[in-house]
Every structure is written in structure tokens, then in C-alpha cells.
Amino acid sequence: MSEQQIVLASRPEGRPTRDTFRYETIELDALKADQVLVETLYISVDPYMRGRMNDARSYSQPFDLDAPIQGGVVARVVESTSDLLTVGDTVVGMLDWATKSVVDAKQVRKIDATLAPVSTALGVLGMTGMTAYFGLLDIGNPQSGETVVVSAAAGAVGSIVGQIAKIKGARVVGIAGSAEKIQYLKEELGFDEVINYKTEQIGEALDRTCPDGIDVYFENVGGAIGDAVLDRLNPFARIPVCGAISGYNEQADLGPRVQSKLIIARARMQGFLVGDYGKRFKEAAEQLGKWVSNGELKYEETIFEGFEQVPDAFLGLFDGSNTGKLLVKL
Ligand SMILES: NC(=O)c1ccc[n+]([C@@H]2O[C@H](COP(=O)([O-])OP(=O)(O)OC[C@H]3O[C@@H](n4cnc5c(N)ncnc54)[C@H](OP(=O)(O)O)[C@@H]3O)[C@@H](O)[C@H]2O)c1
After folding, report:
1. Where is the Enoyl reductase (ER) domain (predicted)?
2. Does the beta carbon of 326 lie inside 6 Å of ligand 1?
């Protein structure tokens, strides 16, 4: 059977479309020494990939035009010339968006499929869980009784952030974009308050839900939501800046200047990248695994089925079509 890959067909201006992507049939090379042939099981679609579609300086290299898009993938080994991996092993790595790939065995990491569903290696026990863990605990440092606000609260990172903040004894206010998400966050995850930013006036809603001000704001979206939060910070508030998805498809996203707001609150706003915490991934994986297995940390996945769904799944991130981690299952 012929295999397929998805390449970047054009650099999007503004919001990507299906024409941003092109499917190609591929011939796979024979395995060299220390390589594996892997069959893709799950593909992770992530907001940061939008940035890599631009030809602009950033923290990661732009995707090349007409070359395969790469992202987080969970796959099964179907052939191996490596001592590290055997046929049947499940692995995770940064791989091409393809139905099968030939890769160096060192390019992937074996996962223990008996511990948790393998898809969690791309979500709560993978990059998104780590992002929530380090951004919230290292930079946000929430204390018992403090008010923590998180945007994109029903998404992959946000839903974990809110729950870890609850574990630490904070009062948690989520911001999300649909009635179903509000219900999920309140009833399933135990958030104290949730704001629907699409139907409520964000400033008024923050005043109502955060009567004692905001001590930690976990920033996932930027834009008008971030602006409204900055006006309501308590002294010495902390703002881990994880993402700013509301601006990823914008040419220019102008907002108020933040310096005075940070001075007034003596607040600390810090961008971070999960990759900077590589040396501590083991610590996070162990803690997240414990919380998941004892039921303190719940996770949700929105799964699109089939390789032909990958572009639509990616575009769905910008429509809020996901609750929890957005994945494509092949
Ligand atoms: N710094 C790092 O190392 C790092 C690592 C991973 C992720 N991130 C960032 O973290 C954020 C969340 O990533 P994720 O993977 O967990 O994605 P996600 O939250 O699962 O999915 C994106 C969500 O963003 C919301 N959204 C989309 N457009 C929006 C807009 N214009 N205004 C407000 N909300 C909007 C949607 O939910 P609604 O229905 O609520 O609108 C959507 O479900 C992203 O900004 C991402 O870039 C950073």
C-alpha cells in the first residue's frame, strides 16, 4: 500500500486554509543501520505550528515549503535494524506528518504502553502536560487561597493548569469559548468560576468572578482577554506567558502598553518554552503520572479519525473545536 505525507504547500497569510497543506504519495527508503520503520498511530496538532508556517525568525525554525510538516507523533515500530527498539514497540517523537516514516532509532523515545493510553504521551503525560506543570508551578507559583485565572481553559494546556492550581489550593477561574466547555470545567474539573468570553463582557465577568483580584494569570491567548486581566492584578501577581493564540493569524495585534500596569501591580510577566525544562521532564512526568493514576488530574481528548482529517483538526484549534488535547488517530 502506498504511504502518504502532508507538506506545507504555501505560507498562509492570516488564517490557514486547506490549501495551506498538500498530500503527497511517498516511497519509503530501505532501512539503514540503527533505523526503524514506524507506522503512525496518533498525530498531535498544536497551535505553535502556526508560527512555523511563517518565514520569520522565531524560537523554532520555519517549516520549509513543499517539505513535510513535522510535529508530535505516537507510532508503532514495524521494522527495526536497531538494538534499541523492536517490532511492536510504541514510540513518541517529532516526526513527519506521514502514515509511515523511516527514522533513526535515536530520534524517538519508547513509551510504556501498559502505564496509560499511548495517546497521553502527546497530551497530559507529554508536551502539553509538562507545559502546564512548569509554567504554572515554576513561574506562576500559586499559593493556597490565591486566585488563578487561566485562558483557553478547556484546551490541552489550560485544563491541566486549572486542575494543578486546584491541587495547590488556589481558587481557579477559567476562560473558555462555549457553553459545553463552561459546563465541563465547572462540573467535571471543579473550576470555581468559568467565563464564556464569547457571550460575556470580559472585564465585567472578571470583576464578578475575581472579587479579590488576580494573583496568577496563565496566559494562553493574549489579545483583549490578556488586556482585561492586566487591569485587575493584585500586588506581586505572576503571569506565565505560555501562548497568545488570538494573535497567531493576525498581521498586527496592537494592544495597550503593559509597563505601567506591571509597575502598578509590581507584577512579573515571563514568557517560557517547555523545551527549556528538558532536564526536569522526568520529575514532571512522574508527578503528572501520579496525579492521573490517583484521579486528581483528569484529561480529555478530542480525536479526529483518519489521516485525511489532519488539516481540519489543525484548523479546528482556531475555532475552539477541541476540549482537552486535539489529536488525529490513524
Ligand atoms: N510556551 C510553550 O512551551 C507552549 C507549549 C504548548 C502550548 N503553548 C501555547 O499554549 C496555548 C494552548 O495550547 P494548547 O496546545 O493547549 O491548545 P488548546 O488550548 O488545546 O487549543 C487552542 C484553544 O484556544 C482557544 N482559542 C482559539 N482562538 C482563540 C481566540 N482568538 N481567543 C481566545 N481563545 C482562542 C480555543 O478554545 P475556546 O473554545 O475557549 O476559544 C482552542 O480550543 C497556545 O497559545 C499554545 O501556543 C505554549
Report:
1. 17-328
2. yes
Give yes or no for residue 273 CB within 6 A of ligand 1.
Answer: yes
* C-beta 240 within 6 A of ligand 1: no
Domains and CATH numbers, the chain: 3-123+300-329 (3.90.180.10), 127-275 (3.40.50.720)
Residue whose C-alpha cell is 490517583? 294
Q: What CA–CA distance (Å, rounded) separates 144 from 215?
A: 11
For the CA of 273, the closest atom of ligand 1 is 3
Q: Ligand 1 pocket, 185 CB below 6 A? A: no
Atom of ligand 1 nearest to the CA of 323: 43
**What are the pLDDT tens digits along the chain (330 aa)?**
589 999 999 999 999 999 999 999 999 999 999 999 999 999 999 999 999 999 988 888 999 999 999 999 999 999 999 999 999 999 999 999 999 999 999 999 999 999 899 999 999 999 999 999 999 999 999 999 999 999 999 999 999 999 999 999 999 999 999 999 999 999 999 999 999 999 999 999 999 999 999 999 999 999 999 999 999 999 999 999 999 999 999 877 778 899 999 999 999 999 999 999 999 999 999 999 999 999 999 999 999 999 999 999 999 999 999 999 999 999
Residue of 203, 201, 209 lying closest to 185 (CA atoms): 209
Residue nearest to atom 20 of ligand 1 (CA): 155
Q: Which residue's CA lies nearest to atom 42 of ligand 1?
A: 320
How many whole angstroms from 211 Cα to the centroid of ligand 1?
26
How far from 157 is each of 174, 183, 198, 257, CA to CA, in Å?
12, 18, 20, 26
